Amino acid sequence: MVAQRKSNPKRPVVGLYWRKLVFFAFVFSFISVGLSGIKIYKADIKKYIPSAQTSDLTINLNILADGSITIDGKKIKDRINTSGSKDELILPILDNIGTGYNSVHVLLTLPQNAVNSSTYDIKGIHGIETTNVSVISDNMLDYYASGVGPDSTLSVIVNMPKGTVNPPLIVRFYAGIASIKLNLWLIVAFGLPIMTLIFMVLFILYQGRRQKIDLPEEETDSPPMALPPAIAGVLYHQTVGPRELAATLIDLAQRGDIFIIDRERDFAFLKNRLDRRLLSYEKILLSKIFRNSVVSNRAEVEQRINNHLYSQKISHVTAGVYVLATRLGYFKANPQKVHLKYQIIGMGAFFAGIVGFFLSLLIFTNPPYILFFWAGMMVSGLIITLTAKNIPNRTVIGTETLSNWLAFRKYLSNPAKVAFSYDSQERFQKYLPYAIVLDCEVAWAKRFSEQNFILPAWYVCDQNGIGLQDFCLSLFPLVSYVARSLSSLREPGFE
């Protein structure tokens, strides 16, 4: 919100990044499980191979009419590849299984009498002495290897005429997807997020043109109406963020409801009185900070923050601001609900991408290039989710009111210095919350940089006679820190 405050090594950073860490840890664990599933899948064929120590091994390999494969009568996950010009099988039948054999016979039975029209081979590496393939009948081949070591890899290969097997429609569909070239999937993977981003930008610009805001030529030296700073902030930003919470805290202090106490290694909030003029969301915010006490120091505030993954009270604070701004006629519908609708679409696309990603790993024998498509969908979902909050939703009254507030913002950010007077000092304090929600608190403070600063009665600190710069370097990071920490407690679906 303003220049950095002097570093304080004992002031912890509570920005609640550990909650995000929990989320990404969950995602990482989910991905790890999926990857471990790939490893198990690749090694799955081992369980069909006898583990007993024998000198000779015979394996009955059977290709069924639908393209599925059995080993000694047990169906495995591998299937015939029908995506090319041939019906092809390349199957590592032994792969570092830890057992050696004098000889290995793999008796392969084809679904039709296709031996004479097929090509076949056997590949053996890592300690295999000899390999050979012989024809037993019109539909059976004998793949033979001798001197097979425990670390050996033995693969059988057969290329049958196209149409030898007739896989189900869904399998042919998967095979068609798997046959798509890498370059096309890469184009889709990068093109999908780019098109999504372009669409969202154009959609936001289109909505913005429909709700065109007239930029004022003249400035206004007072707020156009007596709105709470948070309402002016949501009208300007269309979201309730840390700035709206920080401005509300300073506004409550300026109105005499609380004191802000800042010490070198600590801070505290002191409740001054119970003001019946408080709005509902202001009461909820104060109840979150104070609970049943009149003083809440840094340790207590951080404890109430760290003890909750989410806070219903903070969610009600933001919801209260949205509801009030909508009731005043500034928005066509509650901005939170409008943005949530698009965020649900974005998160739906994101999780659909995750599901599709892992289903592809489970369904396909080898990780296919379609994984790039699912990755692109996940990125597109995140783009929709992150940009949804920028979709304009103001009414005609809202755009006209915002134009008046922009005229006031022009006054706050005017670089001309303000002449000293006691009234001007009071004006600085009174307009400070509005400057925060209108993103010009630094410019507003600079207008008073040549004055002898009078410390506000609601701000208490250890130092005596501090100037305006020290005041800003102390107050702004403090309320920003608390506001960001509280803002991060909002429940999912609340922005």
What would your notes on this structure say?
This protein is an alpha+beta fold. Among the domains are: 48-167, Immunoglobulin-like, CATH 2.60.40; 211-332 and 394-487, no CATH class. It has helices at 17-42, 169-179, 182-210, 229-237, 242-254, 280-290, 298-306, 312-327, 335-363, 370-387, 396-412, 422-437, 441-446, 468-487, and strands at 56-63, 68-71, 74-79, 87-95, 101-109, 119-125, 130-137, 140-148, 153-160, 258-263, 266-271, 295-297, 459-461. The strands form 3 sheets. The protein has a 6-stranded mixed beta sheet, with no helix packed on it. A 4-stranded mixed beta sheet has the order 12-11-10-13. Strand 10 (258-263) and strand 11 form a beta hairpin. Helix 4 (229-237) packs antiparallel against helix 5 (242-254), helix 6 packs antiparallel against helix 8 and helix 9 (335-363) packs antiparallel against helix 10. The model is unreliable at 1-22 and 32-43 (pLDDT under 50).
Helix and strand arrangement:
Elements: H1 17-42, E1 56-63, E2 68-71, E3 74-79, E4 87-95, E5 101-109, E6 119-125, E7 130-137, E8 140-148, E9 153-160, H2 169-179, H3 182-210, H4 229-237, H5 242-254, E10 258-263, E11 266-271, H6 280-290, E12 295-297, H7 298-306, H8 312-327, H9 335-363, H10 370-387, H11 396-412, H12 422-437, H13 441-446, E13 459-461, H14 468-487
